[in-house]
Amino acid sequence: MAINSKTNRFWEIFTILVIIGILCLLLIPDVQQAVNSGPRERFRNQMKAVGLALHQYQDAYGCLPPAALKGEEGTPMHSWRALLLPLLEPYFKTKSRPYGYQFDEPSDSETNQKIASQNPHFYRFIITRDDNTKRTSKLVAIIDKSTYWNPAIDCHRLVSGNKAEKRIILMEVPGLKSLWNEPTDFTLDELQTLIEENAFATYGSHVLFDNGEVTWLSPDDITVQKMHKLLNIESKSQLAD
Questions:
Q1: CA dist 37 to 32, 144, 158, 185, 241, Å?
Q2: What's the pTM value of the predicted model, to 2 decimals?
Q3: Which value, in Å, is the radius of gyration of the alpha carbons in the chain?
Q4: How far is the CA of 60 from the CAs of 35, 55, 86, 151, in angstroms?
Q5: Tens digits of per-residue pLDDT, 39-50?
Q6: If we measure between CA atoms, which residue out of 118, 112, 84 comes closest to residue 98?
Q7: Using an 8 Å Cβ cutoff, are 231 and 146 in contact?
Q8: What is the pLDDT of residue 237?
Q9: Residue 165 — very low, low, confident or very high, per pLDDT cuts 50/70/90?
Q10: Closest listed residue to residue 159, CA positions, set 67, 241, 79
Q11: Where are the alpha helices (DSSP H) in the chain?
Q12: What is the DSSP letter of 167?
């Protein structure tokens, strides 16, 4: 009788442990999603702050920042990301991660590289996958004569218009591990290549519109035709006129 009681007790405990184990396995995706929802929301809020900073920069200087400040030989020296830092300092600055980008030094100087390394989440979205590997993406400008970042124009300005005619000014591109201080972005042709190579097929992309709106585009939304339309400000300029 005692043996049967112990046996039954063993199986009761074993069954409970199995149930707990199954529940833990079922909860892992939810926990992972909760862990990543924090970085995702911070990135979206950061993009909204960047949108506001772009408007403030234009109010102060009459134009949007250039994609990159260039040196005497035409070499990119400092990214638009660095140019917005003074306006974003109240949002970005934390006690544990010092701020102090030096414009009198190259973007990859020891000082600026250290600052970028100490603040890796500036303009970047970093999440941990289920297998504990990191997925990194970065906010970039799309360079083309039809976008807000026309290389042939010195002064780019936000084009006013109704909400239906909003255009993308910046977008998140996956797979970029370089830090934000690097003065590099993507051309429209390079973006088209990424789309054709299904670079956005898994995660889609967060985009910042010229009205300050931040939106997530699903992989199905990111086609060459749709992105050309959403990035093209020439048609919006004509409608605004």
A1: 9, 33, 31, 26, 41
A2: 0.79
A3: 23
A4: 38, 9, 12, 21
A5: 788 899 999 999
A6: 118
A7: yes
A8: 53
A9: confident
A10: 241
A11: 2-61, 80-92, 110-118, 188-196, 224-231, 234-240
A12: -
Q: Report residue 217 as tokens.
A: 């585009």
Question: In the chain, helix, strand, coil percent, each to 5?
Answer: 45, 15, 35
Q: How confident is the model at residue 149 (pLDDT cuts 50, 70, 90)?
A: very high
Say if residues 230 and 207 touch (Cβ distance below 8 Å): yes
Tokens, residue 22: 């199954």
CB-based contacts of 153, cutoff 8 Å, min separation 6: none
Rounded Cα–Cα distance for residues 152 and 106 (Å): 24
Residue 218, exposed/middle/buried by CB under 10 A (0-12, 13-18, 19+)? exposed
Task: Write out pLDDT tens, residues 10-67.
Answer: 566 656 555 555 544 444 443 333 334 577 888 999 999 999 999 999 999 999 999 9
What's 149's DSSP letter? Answer: B
DSSP state of 218: P
